[in-house]
Design a protein that fits this description.
about 140 residues, 6 helices, about 65% helix
Length: about 140
């Protein structure tokens, strides 16, 4: 990265990290990003470490981690807590697999409903609406 040792304003940091200024402020309130000291009569300045931190947070979010989980990961960021970080990732992986399983069930049921709609085209009552009234039967 370029030499941005505390040379950016919050707007520059937002542009560099491709986030909104309000996102930065929110992350600061949540403890995800430190808020630099304001020099007397000056404005706060940010640098490469802040971009790295925002990249960490955004990447973790893309992997499905909540902000609370990211706070936990950031506490483990000194490189000596690999087993704890791995445990958090394993838990997240289990959550993702559970969501995929639920989504596959939803896909199956919706597919069946749509197929019934197509098979009964022209009927006065809608099989999809009727199915929703009847409820989902677990197979």
């Amino acid at each position: 990265m370029s030499d941005n040792k505390n040379s950016m304003t919050i707007g520059g940091l937002a542009r560099a990290a491709n986030v909104h200024i309000e996102t930065i402020r929110y992350y600061q309130r949540r403890g995800l990003l430190p808020e630099p000291q304001r020099p007397p009569g000056g404005i706060r300045r940010y640098g490469d470490a802040d971009i790295d931190r925002l990249t960490f947070v955004k990447t973790a979010q893309q992997l499905g981690f909540s902000l609370d989980e990211i706070i936990d990961l950031l506490r483990l960021d000194d490189g000596t807590h690999c087993q704890e970080a791995s445990a958090l990732a394993e838990h997240k992986l289990w959550d993702v697999r559970e969501k995929i399983s639920r989504l596959e069930k939803i896909e199956k049921v919706l597919g069946e409903m749509v197929d019934r709609c197509h098979a009964h085209a022209g009927n006065i009552s809608c099989p999809l609406i009727a199915s929703l009234h009847e409820g989902i039967r677990e197979n």
